[in-house]
Design goal:
Number of helices: 6
Helix content: over 70%
Order of helices and strands: HHHHHH
Distance between the termini: 83 Å
Length: 166
């Protein structure tokens, strides 16, 4: 390698004697380009984890407020014979609707942003709609995990205490 570079440098000096011999290797340039993409991917991954954590905390707060406001309703339903599954479903229904609505709104926006980002590459993969369905399913499962603990805790409570609650 050093001998070849020296030969190229001598040829350069014959062709352009006043110009400096400055060179880069293609693999170094490509490595720098993909290193920037990897760094962007790492930053976005951490931001995504943080956003998911904050969203789960928000969902847990909404679930707590919802169950606190519906304590009497839950007590009445329990006295009238509602099962634990029916009560949890009733408490999780608004959260489910919010997550599904958010997924319907976010999917086209994410698709357009991904298309725009992928246009910068010479070769790219086609975006499969199944990934958006998978993301919506994972978001729904994560929301249910965040909310169900509070819903089950409230639904298992003593209905007499729930009816006395003000």
């Amino acid at each position: 390698m050093p001998a070849t570079l020296e030969t190229i440098k001598q040829a350069w000096n014959k062709v352009a004697p006043g110009q400096p011999f400055d060179f880069t290797f293609l693999n170094d340039a490509l490595d720098a380009q993909y290193r920037a993409e990897q760094h962007l991917s790492s930053v976005l991954s951490w931001a995504t984890y943080l956003a998911i954590l904050i969203a789960c905390l928000g969902l847990f707060g909404i679930a707590t407020l919802t169950t606190a406001g519906r304590t009497k309703e839950i007590g009445v339903r329990k006295v009238l014979g509602a099962s634990l599954a029916q009560l949890v479903f009733t408490l999780n229904k608004p959260i489910t609707l919010m997550v599904l609505l958010a997924s319907v709104i976010a999917a086209p926006i994410a698709y357009l942003l991904m298309q725009r980002w992928l246009q910068g590459f010479a070769f790219h993969v086609a975006i499969n709609p199944a990934w958006f369905l998978l993301a919506a399913g994972l978001a729904l499962a994560l929301a249910w995990l965040s909310v169900s603990w509070q819903s089950v805790k409230t639904a298992r409570g003593n209905p007499v205490e729930a009816l006395r609650y003000e």
